[in-house]
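Bug: token stream looks shifted between consecutive jobs. Job 1:
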Amino acid sequence: MSPDSMPLGSARSAAEVNEHIRALWLRSGGILSTQERAEYELLVVEWAEAIRGAVIEAA
């Protein structure tokens, strides 16, 4: 997944994003290429936003 293909304000749940992060690590064999690292960083930001959104909704 390229950074350009990531939708802004993605509505994916934290669990779904976490699954993508896990799959990325499995595909890479634990060593991320430069492109995979960029994808990972975007996924982590998306995951954090999803967590924040879930906390706000629960409040």
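Job 2, same session, no restart:
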Amino acid sequence: MKRILKNKLLLRILLFVIIGFLEGCRVSSVSDNLKNGDLLFVTANDSGLSGAINNVTQKEKNISFDHIGILKKEKGQYFVLHAAPKGGSQKQVLKDFMNEQAKEGQRVIVYRLKREYRKAISPAIEKAESMVGKPYNFNYILNEDSYYCSDFVERAFRENHIFKLEPMTFIDPQTGKTNEFLEKFYKERNIKVPEGKPGCNPNGLAVSDKIKKIKEL
């Protein structure tokens, strides 16, 4: 009986070791060839707020995004600096960030600043870290007290003019009228739809001529 229990214990320990090894390999493979300052774009969902925002901001037919973060490598570990509804402006472990996207069925695409613009990375990361702790901007109207995802990234790189603010639009290209979901969204908040106000979005940032697509994680 003691031998059986001992064998079971050894098998259990071996199983934990194998699981840990496989998890380590998976994380390692995800972070292969990633660089400090890489931009992680998250693909958009088709419904809800994500779908509505994508409806009025999508630039390319074959792919669209509803979230973005900045990768930081620190002491051999990878983190994502980003602003999200859950947690606001934050510094999140890459593995946790990836797991959250996977649970939502969303993919992560890596973009990278072109060589001539990479000097902007260090000050951008420094700026991004200074914004950690700020709440999320649920109204998507620029202010200095809270940030939404693309706003967070644009501000981080603003000193070097990597991205730019543009007049926002909430017009459904299919109907020529304000997207119904977004119209209701702002009505419930007793806010006028901020059509034409300066802002940014992940799809707009993705088409910047200062960055290039690298791979999918």
